[in-house]
């Protein structure tokens, strides 16, 4: 099985149109000649030096990531710098790179659908819809049965890939949880949407101390905070299956943990 980089780009553009991305975002192809044939595509949340090495090791001629490598403007690709070195390695290896970020966040199915499915939610609908359609940031769904917040937090921890960060929750451990909102990646901008929706719990990442503390005092849903990388990783299986079906190319999902937090010690309680 093989396909060209251009064919894979076309398939991804159809699945995750670039015009769906936020104005500040940088999505689409980064490097790789469209006519170059590839036998295998590697899918990863981030493009880091270890990801480029993994592509070499598994024989992937293209990498598809969620997070942009070049989100902010650069004036140099000096190979002695971090991003310059990554770009040089990609080009020297003939490896293409493509990013689907906020356009994959709002897609249906997209990043939050994959997260919700991993947690066992059904009957999904957008948390923050776009034009009242199926697209939008986040998803709201239902668990098959009501469980306690403590048990649901344990379910989240077991469903997501392991990280040093782990999973933490804010709320009464015995609080019943049935209706759940999720948002892959940083989601504290959607706390108000979760509160308005009347969900029992909101699963996301990168929650800030003061925002979470004030939210907890208003009687909103319980909060479950997981590692950013872990909440977006389930999407990789989804997009890999989509590309495999559309392009008849071999796919590999990277298990390499690109979460930046590497040491954790529990405080005495």
TrEMBL record:
One cellular component term (GO) for this entry is:
cytoplasm
InterPro entries the UniProt entry points to: DUF34/NIF3, DUF34/NIF3_sf
- The record lists the organism as Stackebrandtia albiflava
Instruction: Please list every transmembrane segment annotated in the UniProt record, as residue ranges.
Output: none
Please give the subunit comment from the record: Homohexamer.
Identify the SUPFAM superfamilies for this entry: NIF3 (NGG1p interacting factor 3)-like
Binding positions for a divalent metal cation?
Answer: 66-67, 105, 228, 232
- A Gene Ontology molecular-function term? metal ion binding
- Family membership, please give it: Belongs to the GTP cyclohydrolase I type 2/NIF3 family.
The UniProt entry, under Gene3D superfamilies, shows: NIF3 (NGG1p interacting factor 3)-like (3.40.1390.30)
**Name of the molecule in the record:** GTP cyclohydrolase 1 type 2 homolog
Question: Could you tell me the keywords of this UniProt record?
Answer: Metal-binding
Please give the Pfam families that the UniProt record associates with this protein. DUF34_NIF3
**Statement: the UniProt record of this protein carries the keyword Metal-binding:** yes
């Amino acid at each position: 099985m093989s396909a060209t980089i251009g064919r894979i780009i076309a398939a991804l553009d159809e699945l995750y149109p670039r015009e769906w991305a936020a104005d500040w975002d940088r999505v689409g192809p980064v490097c790789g000649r469209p006519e170059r044939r590839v036998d295998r595509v590697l899918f990863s949340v981030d493009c880091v030096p270890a990801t480029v090495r993994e592509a070499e090791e598994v024989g992937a001629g293209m990498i598809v990531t969620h997070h942009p490598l070049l989100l902010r403007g650069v004036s140099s690709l000096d190979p002695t710098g971090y991003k310059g070195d990554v770009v040089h390695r990609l080009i020297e290896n003939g490896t293409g790179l493509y990013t689907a970020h906020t356009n994959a966040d709002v897609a249906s199915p997209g990043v939050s659908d994959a997260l919700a499915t991993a947690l066992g939610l059904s009957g999904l609908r957008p948390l923050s819809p776009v034009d009242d359609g199926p697209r939008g940031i986040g998803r709201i769904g239902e668990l098959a049965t009501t469980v306690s917040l403590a048990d649901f937090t344990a379910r989240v921890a077991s469903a997501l890939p392991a990280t040093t960060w782990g999973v933490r929750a804010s709320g009464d451990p015995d609080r019943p949880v049935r209706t759940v909102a999720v948002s892959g990646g940083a989601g504290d901008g959607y706390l108000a949407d979760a509160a308005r929706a009347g969900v029992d719990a909101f699963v996301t990442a990168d929650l800030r101390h003061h925002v979470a503390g004030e939210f907890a005092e208003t009687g909103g849903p319980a909060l479950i905070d997981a590692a950013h990388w872990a909440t977006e990783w389930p999407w990789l299986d989804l997009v890999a299956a989509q590309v495999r079906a559309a392009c008849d190319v071999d796919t590999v999902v990277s298990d390499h943990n690109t979460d930046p937090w590497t040491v954790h010690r529990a405080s005495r309680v």
